[in-house]
Amino acid sequence: MANANRDTDSLFQAILDRCPIGIAVIDYNGLYLTVNPAYCAIYGYTQQQMRGNSFKMIFPPADQQSILERHQRFLEFGGDLRGEWPVRKSDGTSLTVLSESVRFSPLGGKADRLVYVLDITDRKQAQEQMKIAAAVYESSHEAIVVTDADNKIISINPAFTTLTGYQFDEVKGCNPGEFKSGRHSSFFYSEMWRVLNETGLWIGEIWDHHKNGNDFLKALTITLIKDVKGNVIKHVGMFSDITLRKEHEEQIWRQANYDATTDLPNRHLFQQKLEQVARSIKRTERVMALMLIDIDNFKAVNDSMGHRAGDILLASLARRLFNALPEDGTLARIGGDEFAVIITCTNQPCKCENVAKNLLESLSNPFNIEDESVFVSASIGISIYPTDSENLEELFKNADQAMYSVKNSGRNGFSYYSPALHNAALVRMRTTNDLRVALREGQFEVYYQPIATLATGKIAKAEALVRWHHPTRGLVSPDEFIPLAEESGLIVPLGNWVACQAIDQLARWQQTYDANFKMSINLSPVQLRSQDFVDMTWVKELKRHGLLGNSVIVEITEGLLLNAENRVNENLHLLHQAGIQIAIDDFGTGYSSLAYLRKFNIDYLKIDRSFVADLDGVGYELCLAIIAMAHSLGVLVIAEGVETIQQSQTLARIGCDHIQGYLLSRPLPADDISRFLSGCSDVLVN
């Protein structure tokens, strides 16, 4: 009998050892009586390590006691002890196993438990992945559509319905191509399928048709799903609606590349276009013309009518310039009142000249801005690529120099770049640099020219005029350096210095020559526009020397009053309040108007020297009219450029108040004028 039991045990163990399913026999106390190799392999132990040890060893410590109690209840009372269990391998790795237990008493003794175990970790993980995938599929904000091998729709997610408006019943069995927008060519779709079939993936943007009838742009990814033999079994498409995003990106791009006022390309986009055309030109026999267009006196419109009116004008003239260009021309606004044009041509002078003339002609008629007729003109500089330069930055500089020459020549015209213009620009730049050095090193000197009262013949005033003693060039003409000082802003410190010197000299002459002597000081429009009254340091010099405000006459131009802005108006008002008198220089050569003579409390008019030189001709009537008009307004008159006794006598006869010119004296240094004043008589000019 004992031999029979041994044979049975051996047979049982042999069956266990060969069984591919993990099997263990566990006694009432939870100890392993036997385990087969498949069971050991699941948990990573050897049979020797497991036999005689508690089956709790495969469970996490927190679960061991409750698991043992369930095991014992099962052996005592029976019931169900099957299910999925989280367990741990010998190396601590977590597993999920499916186990089933049966009561087992091979020798009829106390009941043991026979346990069958399968490792279902991979299956559980796959199930979890499937759950996650299903959740993503259902909750994704991206639309997902699945088609079969024939590209017929077999599944969609909720986002598909949200984005397209179609329910599954409406699209089931349909080919996605049925929702084409019609915006793409057949070549587009053939290329899409070629790439998809060759690579298994296509990513791009495509317009489709929404159920509501609108087109929408979607970012689409299509993936091929193949079986083990490489046959296509499904297509998976994922997409999102990017219509609004694209519109926003387009808006941002447009804001970065187009001018909001004129809707023209801005400097950034124009530069890209210029580089593109230049690359193209290199491959052909053609040339490219760069035109820079500056609107003449545009600031006057802004100052007199406001920036809103200025913007309306810019938009209107941009349309005219655009319509005046040939079809292959490019127009851009590159800043302020400056525009740029690109023209390509084979015969460079002819086409460029015609285009420039058309552009100027387009601006010849007035613009109606807020019920006002506004006239503008333009100055155009032209530089040719690659003739003038193959460097685009230099090309811009060349066109700018050509435009500058038009400005200096009277405006409302065009000019080509030439080396002479380049040289002139270099001279201007070097002269401007020298001006900075001159201010720092004190190379300037104030000269003075006397002004006589015709009624008495007495020298009653002098005009302060700045002179520049250049260390290498000698005496530089004010006509050369004053415009450069104004352009660079150096006229502000220079003008303040001249005024301070003149007031200091005025104090001396009032002490030594005449207590009522007056000084005329020229104020540049830049000085009145770029600084406030409180920053005019020379005004404080009057108080320091104990001089009255009416000891000084500031000379300004007619154009400044015509285009006067708020700061200019305020400065002139405060000068008048301080008792400082105001004279209009070169009167009659600009936009002479009675209105601003009243508005700005003008004290003197200075008749331009060209009228005095023509006293034997039409100048006589002009001088007569100016003097009569001025006196009717209580304004005194000074005639400039008086060189002969005859001119002096004629001016005295028609009522002129004062004269200035070579008849009295050339502009001279202060010491020379002092000697002149001490030696002159009251009848000098009579």
Structure description:
There is one protein chain. By secondary structure, the protein is α+β, with helices and mostly antiparallel strands. 45% of the residues lie in helices and 25% in strands. It contains 26 helices and 27 strands. It has an eight-stranded mixed beta barrel, surrounded by six helices. Strands 2-1-5-4-3 form a five-stranded antiparallel β-sheet. The chain has a five-stranded antiparallel β-sheet with strand order 7-6-10-9-8, sandwiched between helices. Helix 11 (298-305) runs antiparallel to helix 12 (307-324), helix 12 runs antiparallel to helix 13 and helix 17 runs parallel beside helix 19. The protein starts with a helix and ends in a 7-residue tail after the last helix.
Describe the SSE topology.
Blueprint lengths: L1 H17 L3 E5 L5 E4 L1 H7 L3 H4 L10 H17 L4 E7 L5 E11 L7 E8 L1 H19 L3 E6 L4 E4 L1 H7 L3 H4 L14 H14 L1 E9 L5 E12 L5 E10 L1 H15 L9 H15 L5 E9 L2 H8 L1 H18 L5 E6 L2 E8 L2 H15 L4 E3 L2 E3 L3 E8 L6 H17 L4 E4 L2 H23 L2 E10 L5 E12 L3 E3 L1 H11 L2 H22 L5 E5 L2 H6 L6 H8 L7 E6 H5 L3 H12 L3 E7 L6 H6 L4 E4 L1 H5 L4 H15 L3 E4 L5 H9 L4 E3 L7 E2 H10 L7
Q: Which structural traits does this protein have?
A:
686 residues, alpha+beta, eight-stranded mixed beta barrel, five-stranded antiparallel beta sheet, 27 strands, 45% helix
Helix content: 40-55%
Q: What do the pLDDT scores average to? A: 86
Distance between the termini: 169 Å
How many beta-strand runs?
Answer: 27
**Radius of gyration, CA atoms, in whole angstroms:** 49 Å
Based on Cα principal axes, name the global outline: elongated
Q: Structural class of the helix and strand makeup?
A: alpha+beta
